[in-house]
UniProtKB/TrEMBL annotation:
It comes from Massilia litorea. This is Branched-chain amino acid ABC transporter permease. Pfam families: BPD_transp_2 (PF02653). InterPro entries: ABC_transp_permease, BCAA_transport_permease. The lineage of its organism: Bacteria, Pseudomonadati, Pseudomonadota, Betaproteobacteria, Burkholderiales. Belongs to the binding-protein-dependent transport system permease family. LivHM subfamily.
Amino acid sequence: MDILLQLVFSGIALGMIYAVVAFGYQLTFATSGTLNFGQGEALMLGALVGLSLVGGIHGGPYMSYWLMIPLVIAFGALQGMFVEWIGVRPAIRIKSEFGWIMSTIALAIIFKNVAENIWGKDVLPFPSPLSSTPFQFMGANVQPMQVAVIIGALAIMLAVELFNRKSIYGKAVVATSNDRDAAGLMGINTGRVITFSYALSSATAAFAGALIAPLTLTSATMGASLGLKAFAVAIIGGLTSGMGAIVGGLILGIAETATGYYISTGYKEVPGLILLLLVLAVKPSGLFGKAAIKKV
């Protein structure tokens, strides 16, 4: 029972990271109907930039982990704006169905290559801001950083939801997501809203990278796998549901840790992919998603 609880807590921490990145997919899909397939690379860059800021590479400048977080978020926002400007906006302008897909994938590959040339291809340890000594909770050993990951992930998603509900610009985002054409007729600059959604999406992914880095090894290749799994979480939960991202992330995170322990680490990705196939076959809009009705 203690081992099961241990796996559950580890799975929750991992699943919340998936949920944050999946939440980023939802932000761009809601406003523009597009997805940034470089979300994983935004996470990776957030982790590596954060590692540089706290002095974990080549004895660089040292900075508090907590002071580093807002800088990483700002960097992620700028990176997301760049992706929208270079890769997505031209495709939307010419109404290309697949242009934004190839553009965001191409930019993801470029970001990965740039990261390899700047930080190298080796895996790098990220210093933890909290004690590495676990504490006992219901018989399981829980690392303080795992608790920080769960709290941080919930906090960033709650902050975005409150922003969308309470602020004027957030309401513009919601209006654009509900009906982009109608929002444009009401005087809302939908192009600027889409740019903002990409900035917010990459900012949350970069934040997730800085959160998860102390629990794992940081490298230029860490983003591809995490981004792909987060995309699976977004599909499982539904691309229109924030709650779906959380539930899907928890399901996938716990399934991976349990499978890795009870069966084999070589099969830990299998349950999530099987669930993805089942959801696509039974409820393509996701567990919490709403089926879209397209007028023709």
